Structures are given as structure tokens and as C-alpha cells.
Amino acid sequence: MARVVKVFRTLRNHWKKSTLAVCVLSYGGYWLYGKHCESVVRREACQIAREFGRQQIAPHEGLKKATVILNPAASNGKANSLFEKNAAPILHLAGVEITVVKTDYEGQAKKLLELMELTDMLIVAGGDGTLQEVVTGLLRRPDQETFSNTPIGFIPLGSNNSLSPSLHFLSDDKVKNITSATLSILKGETVPLDVLQIKGEKEQPVFALVGLRWGAFRDVAARISKYWYLGPLKANAAHWLHTLKEWPLVRDVSIFYLAPTPRPPDLPSQKPARPNLLRRIVCRLKNYWNPPVKEPPKVEEPEKWEEQQLSTLELYIQTHNKNPVERRINDSLLICAEPNNFTVGEFIAAGSKKQKDPTVFTENHMELEASACRIKLPEDLAT
């Protein structure tokens, strides 16, 4: 008992050191517990991947080959370490022969995809920017109709992963997000997505899976990282400082758009079997004795472009990929515009929400559905 009293007396006499020791031990215990939970998640994912690797393959079949386009600069330079720890072991245990191609600069993924040979699987390890570059390079290829049949997997390693909620379940644990995305690739869980084509007057077209932003919120979002030293207040501070430089932030823009068109039917996943010889001979004789009547060519009606003048803080043209499973009748995109009557407080509050999800809009926003649109900016620049 005397020893216990002595310990408490020592802690009371050196309460500053004791408080510091408790804080350090608490933080260390929390950090070790987090590492243990990450190790458990990795072990469970590897056990599932090992079952894929134990599956037997036919003698004439080879291992699946996958090309990984990795952006090492994603996640503040931690993408390579995150991939090697959480995704690469799963792919190796599943028996996938992977070839990792690391990008060195912005825009390199486009050039790599234009020259890359056909592969069984294409995996993008990065963020929204890397995925956009890969899709753009793929659809610029001369043989893009054939190459587009290659399944594309996405491992979220970037700071912005807007498409991840549409592809798999997300959690607050980054390791769990990476392992679940890698397992979804192994299971072959594919989702058809719309692609937004963006054309300029001179440059080659650019393709996007999420959308195109233009306005004040997008400008501020590009500067938030500069105020990293403000911690959780950096988003609010960036929006407030932007209002000091320029206010109001209203932009005038002219939009020309076409009405939505009916969505074409989905193509069959497998080519139908060729009919037998007797059936082909009967069909040819039938067409010879009773040839089908040729219909006159349809006269194409001129496109009816509608114009609308907008005064907005931000314009966002987006696809329907936020909910790709939903069945839609029309083939269209969404044109969303924020109102022009924001106060400074409302601008800061809305900007903080858009930092987490850029597709969140205020109640009074304008929304149009169109099959195609043209934008005329005040500087006479077309997008």
C-alpha cells in the first residue's frame, strides 16, 4: 500500500511530466491500434484473393495480364507506398500478372494510352486526374472501338476520388477503400459509365467521367491547399479571402443546348451464334425470290439549338455517373448553375460543402437536361 501511495505522490509532484506521458502513451496506443486494424483488413483481403489464385485454369489459357497506370504523385506522394502495401499483394495472390507503369508528369498517361498494346485488364491507380487522362488517351486511339472493350479498374489513391462512390462502398478507412476496390476488380464487377466529350476550337477533344466545372467555387478549390497551415479552417479561410479580392463573383455565360435524345439499346455482351448452313441457304433463296423493299432514306431534320443566358457563380456540366445503375430513357447530360444572389456567408458555407462533394448544389440552383451543349464565355472562348 505504501508503494502505491508513493507512486501517486510522485505523479502529483510531477504533474506536468505525468500529463505529457499520458498524452504520448494515449496517442501511441491509438496509432498502434490503427495499424493493427489496417493489418487485419489487409489480411482478410489477401485471404479472399488467395481463393482466386487457387482456381484452376485450362491448359490453353494463360495468366490474366493487367497493366497498372500508377500516379506516384497522388496522395501527396504516398500513392506508390499505398499501392505496394494494399493493392499489389492482392493482385499477386490472385494470380494476375501485372505491369506497373508510373507516370512522371501531368498528361503522360494520355500519351501512354495512345501507344499501349492491348491487355486483358487496365487498372488506374490514382485520382480523378489520372482517370481522366487514361480515358482521354484511350478514346483518342484510332482503334478505340476495339480497345474500349478492355475493362478498366479504378483504385482510389488520389486526394479527389469523385467516381469511387459510384463503383464500390466507401468508408473513412483509406486502406479499406483500396482493398475493396482491388477485390472488386478481381471479381469482375463492371458498371457501364457515360463519357463526357469536351471539344475546343483548336485542341483535341478531352473526355471526362464526372463533369466540367467553371466558376468561383472551382477557382477557390484549386487554392485551398495553399492554406494547409490553418488546418480544418483552410476551406472557410480560402473562400473568405477570395471574396476580399473580388466581389461579387457572378459570371455571365451563354448556353446553347439540344434536347435529350432517346438512349440507344445496349449492345449484346456476346456475339450471337451463326445459324446453320441449311438455314442460311433458305434465307438467301427467300431474299432472292422475294427481295426486301428498300425504304427511302430518311431526311435528317436540322438540329434545334436552344439558347439561354445565365448569370451564375458556378456552372457544372456533369454526367449521370453518380448513379450509373439507374435505368434511363434519355441519353443526356446535366447542366447545373448556381444562383447569382449569394451573400458572403452563404458563399463560404456552400464552398465548404462543395469541397467534400462538388455535385452538391443549393436549393435555388437551375438544372437543365440536354444531349449536347455549347458554351460561349464573355471572352468569346468556346468549350
Short description:
With 383 residues, the protein is of the alpha+beta class. The protein has helices at residues 2-13, 15-53, 74-77, 79-93, 108-115, 128-139, 144-147, 164-167, 174-187, 216-221, 234-245, 277-289, 344-356; strands at residues 65-70, 97-102, 121-126, 152-156, 196-198, 206-208, 211-215, 251-258, 261-262, 306-312, 314-318, 330-331, 333-337, 366-370, 372-376.
The pLDDT mean sits at 82
Terminus-to-terminus distance: 80 Å
Protein structure class: alpha+beta
Helical run tally: 13
Question: Given the C-alpha coordinates, what overall shape results?
Answer: flat
Largest sheet: 4 strands, parallel
Poorly predicted tracts of residues: none
Q: What radius of gyration results from the CA coordinates?
A: 28 Å
Number of strands: 15
Which percent range describes the beta-strand content?
15-25%
Helicity level: 40-55%
Spatial strand arrangement across the major sheet = 2-1-3-4
State the order of secondary-structure elements, H for helix, E for strand. HHEHHEHEHHEHHEEEHHEEHEEEEHEE
Organism: Nothobranchius furzeri
Protein name: Acylglycerol kinase, mitochondrial
Keywords: ATP-binding, Kinase, Lipid metabolism, Membrane, Mitochondrion, Mitochondrion inner membrane, Nucleotide-binding, Transferase
Family: Belongs to the AGK family.
Structure description:
The strands form five sheets. The protein has a four-stranded parallel β-sheet, sandwiched between helices. The chain is an alpha+beta fold. α2 runs parallel beside α4. The protein is flat. The longest helix has 39 residues. Helix content is 41%, strand content 19%. β5 and β6 form a beta hairpin. It is built from 13 helices and 15 strands. One of its GO terms (cellular component) is mitochondrial intermembrane space. Its cofactor is Mg(2+). This is Acylglycerol kinase, mitochondrial.
